[in-house]
């Protein structure tokens, strides 16, 4: 019988209501001490292990949070998930992970998940084509937060970075090292972050009084293979037409550049400096190690799940130390005011991580 016990069984054996059992399981302080002791005695006697879903349903409120994510093989996703899990450990919420590919629009899958009403809210990581569908659900009152750099921020609550500022800083770093011919390998232009990284690159050149050279632009796809292809094209040119540095729109493509450079005996950074964007876990362990813009993926996960839970439960709060850490991280909570909404925007600051691949100054820093 023990393995088939339900909350209803515990309520019957303890002589209380299902709502009382649910409140005891949820550590609700409003339960009478005598009743709490009676319920706990039955739970211990029958070695009852409650279902998280059942607790929520019995109490009229679920403590499950849905997380919709790309495959965990995506470079940034494990770090984001680490931040989410770390935060949830300090709460009485549990996570349900839905990991799906975004090769097609999975709106039917999303509808199935939400129609089951198992989760109190949803954190969507890089939702891609599902963004419009999520926006409809949000407008209907369902709690949602997105971590997204593929689409321009919309009415959905959003956590991300100032991509243009990060790209500007990466390019500025190369300029301050004395480089004037700086190539750029772009990401796919249907990704909003790739457009912003290109804009940051252009702005840094403009501020330094350097005209944009279309011959130093190469189109990539955010994959190591496309980095290899772009580097092969670049290094096939006459030596005098080479740039002295490359700002690559993500670390994955930068890995391809470094691979081709090594194969062709091109010294990095002595012959060409390389800077990436993301600071994936592998970037510090390459030879040479990769200078890059660090996206704080774990912190993005933590702040996104905090924002989601606070939108579900207005009384939710974390320890003062956690809140202090969040404030000291320099995150900006930006609220824009479109005509009918007041969406949350949380920008977590990026950081330039200088490593061996960008090398030492060639000339005095520019003013």
UniProtKB/TrEMBL annotation:
Lineage top rank: taxon: Bacteria
Q: Which UniProt keywords apply?
A: DNA-binding, Transcription, Transcription regulation
Coiled-coil stretches noted in the UniProt entry, renumbered to this chain: none
Bias-annotated ranges (Polar residues): 318-331
Q: Which GO terms describe its molecular function?
A: DNA-binding transcription factor activity; transcription cis-regulatory region binding
> Could you tell me which Pfam families the record lists for this protein?
LacI, Peripla_BP_3
Where does the HTH lacI-type domain start and stop, copy by copy? 5-59
Q: InterPro entries annotated for this entry? A: HTH_LacI, LacI/GalR-like_sensor, Lambda_DNA-bd_dom_sf, Peripla_BP_I
Q: Does the keyword DNA-binding apply?
A: yes
- Segments carrying the region annotation (Disordered) are 318-346
Q: What is this protein called?
A: LacI family transcriptional regulator
Query: What does UniProt list as this organism's lineage?
Result: Bacteria, Bacillati, Chloroflexota, Ktedonobacteria, Ktedonobacterales
């Amino acid at each position: 019988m023990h393995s088939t016990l339900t909350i209803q069984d515990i309520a019957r054996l303890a002589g209380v209501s299902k709502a009382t059992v649910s409140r005891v399981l949820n550590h609700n302080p409003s339960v009478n001490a005598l009743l709490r002791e009676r319920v706990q005695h039955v739970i211990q006697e029958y070695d009852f292990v409650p279902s998280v879903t059942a607790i929520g349903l019995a109490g009229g409120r679920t403590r499950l949070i849905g997380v919709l994510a790309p495959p965990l093989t995506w470079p940034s996703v494990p770090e984001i998930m680490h931040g989410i899990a770390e935060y949830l450990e300090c709460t009485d919420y549990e996570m349900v992970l839905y990991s799906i590919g975004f090769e097609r629009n999975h709106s039917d899958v999303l509808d199935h998940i939400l129609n089951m009403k198992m989760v109190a809210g949803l954190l969507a990581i890089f939702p891609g084509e599902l963004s419009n569908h999520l926006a409809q659900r949000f407008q209907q009152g369902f709690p949602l937060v997105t971590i997204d750099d593929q689409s321009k921020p919309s009415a959905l609550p959003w956590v991300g970075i100032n991509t243009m500022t990060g790209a500007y800083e990466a390019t500025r770093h190369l300029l301050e090292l004395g480089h004037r011919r700086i190539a750029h390998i772009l990401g796919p232009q249907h990704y909003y972050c790739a457009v912003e990284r290109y804009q940051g690159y252009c702005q840094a050149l403009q501020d330094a009084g350097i005209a944009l050279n279309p011959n130093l632009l190469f189109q990539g796809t955010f994959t190591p293979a496309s980095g290899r292809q772009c580097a092969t094209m670049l290094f096939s040119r006459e030596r005098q037409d080479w740039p002295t540095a490359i700002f690559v729109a993500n670390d994955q493509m930068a890995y391809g550049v470094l691979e081709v450079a090594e194969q062709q005996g091109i010294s990095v950074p002595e012959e060409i400096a390389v800077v990436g964007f993301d600071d994936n876990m592998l970037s510090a362990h390459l030879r040479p190690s990769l200078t890059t813009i660090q996206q704080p993926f774990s912190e993005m996960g933590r702040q996104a799940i905090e924002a989601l839970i606070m939108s579900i439960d207005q009384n939710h709060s974390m320890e003062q130390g956690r809140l202090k850490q969040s404030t000291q991280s320099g995150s900006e909570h930006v609220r824009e005011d479109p005509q009918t909404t007041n969406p949350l925007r949380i920008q977590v600051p990026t950081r330039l991580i200088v490593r061996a691949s960008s090398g030492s100054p060639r000339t005095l820093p520019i003013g």
